[in-house]
């Protein structure tokens, strides 16, 4: 029964000792070393009984062979275990009163096998460590490759200045959400946003200030649109496109007013503006339930027409049309 329990524990130890090559833990390593030490002591006791009865030290020899072949142990730990247990083995022979002359060959053979076991175990450990290092390098390369792929994907869908969706990604999202609304028979709204007198702002304050203005406004617009579970991206120049699915659940007029007011509250000075002392925006919105026979570009064109009307009516305002 005891042997069965020891074998079961040994199987568990094999799994742990193999894992510790990949993830070394001092406490686990110490427990494993103690287990090996006690396991060999048990084998020495069996061999001592066999020697008294005229047998050999085969159990002790088989045990150290078994450990060397099936386990990965650091050379320092293995030397400590084997040397200590070998002295226990010699002491056991002396303690049992067996004539040294009769067991002298056993002592020589066991010592020779012990050296071979050390060599085999050390060689296995080195090979395992090389494999571990190789796998670690591959794992690190895969992680770097994954990060590079993620960065490339972001570059492919985001505008480099505002970090909003670029026009290509917006087209993709537009098609998906338009078709989804058509299938579910739900209302969707497209919103075109333009920064008022942005060219004059650039000419007055320079392109660096113009880029900073774009970034600040895009951040503000994103924070608001995100609250309404919509999508926003830079459509081109100083224009933004917003896609709001399930807009029937949203107070459209309130949201459009909020966008205009929050941008002007940022107080980005624009002395060349004809409608305010600060940077403002104009909005054109178009909403409705899509027809399956139509395409999302029809809604974008209608939102652009509404934007043109808002600008024609004096800017810093919105125009919303419905299907």
UniProtKB/TrEMBL annotation:
<keyword id="KW-0175">Coiled coil</keyword>
<dbReference type="InterPro" id="IPR029787">
    <property type="entry name" value="Nucleotide_cyclase"/>
</dbReference>
<feature type="domain" description="GGDEF">
    <location>
        <begin position="186"/>
        <end position="323"/>
    </location>
</feature>
<keyword id="KW-1133">Transmembrane helix</keyword>
<dbReference type="InterPro" id="IPR043128">
    <property type="entry name" value="Rev_trsase/Diguanyl_cyclase"/>
</dbReference>
<dbReference type="GO" id="GO:1902201">
    <property type="term" value="P:negative regulation of bacterial-type flagellum-dependent cell motility"/>
</dbReference>
<feature type="transmembrane region" description="Helical">
    <location>
        <begin position="79"/>
        <end position="101"/>
    </location>
</feature>
<dbReference type="GO" id="GO:0005886">
    <property type="term" value="C:plasma membrane"/>
</dbReference>
<keyword id="KW-0472">Membrane</keyword>
<feature type="coiled-coil region">
    <location>
        <begin position="249"/>
        <end position="276"/>
    </location>
</feature>
<keyword id="KW-0812">Transmembrane</keyword>
<protein>
    <submittedName>
        <fullName>GGDEF domain-containing protein</fullName>
    </submittedName>
</protein>
<dbReference type="GO" id="GO:0043709">
    <property type="term" value="P:cell adhesion involved in single-species biofilm formation"/>
</dbReference>
<dbReference type="InterPro" id="IPR000160">
    <property type="entry name" value="GGDEF_dom"/>
</dbReference>
<feature type="transmembrane region" description="Helical">
    <location>
        <begin position="26"/>
        <end position="45"/>
    </location>
</feature>
<feature type="transmembrane region" description="Helical">
    <location>
        <begin position="51"/>
        <end position="72"/>
    </location>
</feature>
<dbReference type="InterPro" id="IPR050469">
    <property type="entry name" value="Diguanylate_Cyclase"/>
</dbReference>
<feature type="transmembrane region" description="Helical">
    <location>
        <begin position="107"/>
        <end position="127"/>
    </location>
</feature>
<dbReference type="GO" id="GO:0052621">
    <property type="term" value="F:diguanylate cyclase activity"/>
</dbReference>
<dbReference type="Pfam" id="PF00990">
    <property type="entry name" value="GGDEF"/>
</dbReference>
